[in-house]
Amino acid sequence: MCNTVAVTRARWTTETTPLPPHALAWLSRRVGLGEPLPEVPVEAPAPALSADAFTALEAVCAVSVEPSDRLGRAGGLSYLDLLRHRGHGSLAVPDAVVLPASPAEVVEVLQVCVEHDIAVVPFGGGTSVVGGVEALRGSKSAVVALDLAGLEALVSLDPVSRVAVLQAGLTGPEAERLLGEHGFTLGHVPQSFERATIGGFAATRSAGQASSGYGRFEDLVESVRVATPVGEWVVGAAPASAAGPDLKQLVLGSEGLFGVITEVSVRVRPKPYGSRYEGFVVDGWEAGVELVRTLAQDGALADVTRLSDVDETEVALALAGPRADVVRKYLRLRGVRQPCLVILGWECRSRSATMSSLSGKKVVRLGRAMGASWLHGRFNGPRQRDALLDAGVCVETLETATRWSGVSQMRDAVRAALVAELGSPVVMCHISHAYETGASLYFTVLVPRDLADPVGQWERAKVAASGAISRLGTITHHHAVGRDHLPWLEGEIGTIGVDVLRAVKARLDPTGILNPGKLV
Amino acid sequence: MCNTVAVTRARWTTETTPLPPHALAWLSRRVGLGEPLPEVPVEAPAPALSADAFTALEAVCAVSVEPSDRLGRAGGLSYLDLLRHRGHGSLAVPDAVVLPASPAEVVEVLQVCVEHDIAVVPFGGGTSVVGGVEALRGSKSAVVALDLAGLEALVSLDPVSRVAVLQAGLTGPEAERLLGEHGFTLGHVPQSFERATIGGFAATRSAGQASSGYGRFEDLVESVRVATPVGEWVVGAAPASAAGPDLKQLVLGSEGLFGVITEVSVRVRPKPYGSRYEGFVVDGWEAGVELVRTLAQDGALADVTRLSDVDETEVALALAGPRADVVRKYLRLRGVRQPCLVILGWECRSRSATMSSLSGKKVVRLGRAMGASWLHGRFNGPRQRDALLDAGVCVETLETATRWSGVSQMRDAVRAALVAELGSPVVMCHISHAYETGASLYFTVLVPRDLADPVGQWERAKVAASGAISRLGTITHHHAVGRDHLPWLEGEIGTIGVDVLRAVKARLDPTGILNPGKLV
Q1: Is A214 considered catalytic here?
Q2: Which of A116, A170, A450, B332 could form a disulfide with A174 if both were Cys (CB 3.0 to 4.6 A apart)?
Q3: Which of A137-151, A268-282, A407-421, B18-32 is predicted with the least confidence, judged by mean pLDDT?
Q4: Which CATH number applies to A382-480: 3.40.50.300, 3.40.50.150, 1.20.58.90, 3.30.300.330?
């Protein structure tokens, strides 16, 4: 055994995408560029793990205390995480990275950590934007990042029942490749798809871009295998059951507080023969909301159904380059005053059902090029954040969901809160997930970074926006709670709800080693 | 205040339907008739409620200690319940019936019961077939039935978001009438529809006959208002959320152990313009399973999709009277050797999607008369049980769900277990709820009653069948756990699962007054 292991997936290896010139020009004109933030070198402190604990962990699986490995698991990908990695704000660095290679080894790691009173932060793709993987130690003397990269198998596949068992450390693309060899797909494609993992999807109730077609991740899960400090728990199995409360729903969204998800049994579908994406434009936000609501309530949603508000549409056109002028002119000719872009994509659902529900509605078709353009760029957001930081721009996202009757009030309230706090930010909004009873709202905020207090600038904006969000809907539709949404959870689930979570936690993790400082 | 209240919904008022002559003839030939069970008069014991407790309850709401009211809430509608009400087996009779008229009064009743250490059995329609409303007192000195009939309002309706708030005591028809006035339907029609209540649907994870179209009851619920001994809890709200585990899923299926559901916020749909039901026949069970699986995995299920095995089809034809001979002849002409009836009904889903998925399959259409006949008789099962008892027949049902790859193995195993225990029963089986990954299996058992030991006869058969069921699937797909399925729950959810339920129970009901002896 040695203390430097082959760490197969380091945090900072993802390529970042530079901003094209026309995007920089738009930013300069519309948002305003700032000075690049001075980078303060960040170093990993000496690991606080005792020699005994290290030896005990090493007897189970690979362990690393290398600074680069530990820094690579220090937090996720929120704006504040990015600032911390540039030396602004306090970065929590795990004392070691452990890399179990099987569900049984995960159980053993937890036993060692209970014995040595070490905090454990389960770590998948490290894509949390809510502080969900911050290496907080709580009351413990040390904290380890439990990297699940070694759990990367397709364990089994039942092609008749269309159920696959996937290990928790598989990333989106890895899972799709393994399923694809058998002609199946999971169809779960959130923006974090390229790096996020099966275990992370389950632990955070992830929603993919095509969730209108394939379902949210929790809808895809048949059962979960969880390593807890009190032993292993397999929960769920039958296609549907009335055998008491659905306890797998207690594990889904538990963010590593009750145990470490090691395997997930999921519903899979045959790979679609082809896909089709199209762009449309409606005149005004309200007309767009009405349109998406009709599709949702008619059961006629496309697999991907997105509505951008006027501001986001303007940005989409601006970033589309020279072609945008042609589109703008065409829309003017068609009498569209407040263009709102609608992207519809069909992977497995019927396009004809959508189109027949659209018939008679005032919708301008932009065709497949606009759809292809969205598809091409759909993972770019996270990749461009470093480039935006370099350009002196504060960029972050917020999201929620609420009933149809409250969608526009929510959008107005969040915008107002952000404007009140940030001066004149660019606030873009879209609906990306629609349900019969309501929809998600996703906000992207761009504002020149406050050089003197970049951390405080966003923290204050987040508090203001979250106040509006929690008053009118859920504090999070698909980003999870983590550390950042914790102050608003009690308002949403009640004191009793928090107490119930604590009661479950006390039973499954009696010494409180698992992911301290998150969720509750 | 007085101690005899207007008890608006007594247990034994439902009309029972007599068996028509041709049904009796078939029973006599195929099952064998027995002697009517001698009825032993059943009396309610003197109520064990203290005068202080009675006074305290009466200060909150109406209370009755009348024997007829108490006997009317003594258990549900299982075969064993029916035997108990005829004097065979031990009938648990509540010491009083309390009738709160609002969610606040329910909270107050619970506080009084905590103070006086009285067990509380929430009582809706009293249609449990698993002992879910047995008036067990556990370690308490008295037990009251908390009848929710007074909570009967449509509290609110958001027609844009299509969400209604219904009180827990509304029966299926009452809820439909109130929603129907606004053009909406819940679409939840289990066999217990006529008497079962909204609160009961939620507390037991009920599945309606049209759940392929409208969804299982838990899929319809947006939020739940629960009165617990530690206060009121409203859980759920947003159309979708990642704010931690979905805690409403912990209340759904909790069978009154964590609290009393007082209001449920549900998804509603526009009332369909019309419905259409048709009968089809396939040749053999395996072909039928394949057909229903294809419909489920193609997303082409009818709202009601049912497949009967050969034995159930034979009974359906026998009970259809003289018309059956014509059908049998037609099926022989078409070369069908092992007719299995398929009933498809469309309320809100597209018939054309189903029919196009059926195209090319070997299916004989019987037309709308057979569909109408099923629709006409779909609530008859529970109504005819008293008549069957009078004819000396033991009749009971069992149900489960499992993956498609295990459906036929499950059917064979349950039949074999019943035959081994009961000699030569008639065992009928159908699939009534299909999912992408599997289906429910519903068994109806008919056998001449053992006059010497009618209770033991069924208890032994239940144990034998449940052993097979729990080995191959869930112990219950939609009947819930209650008292009768309790021995098999730990095998399904694990020791950890049971401990988690106990931890939640200890937090919400620290003195253990709620529904003792059920679920865990």
Answers
A1: no
A2: A170
A3: B18-32
A4: 3.30.300.330
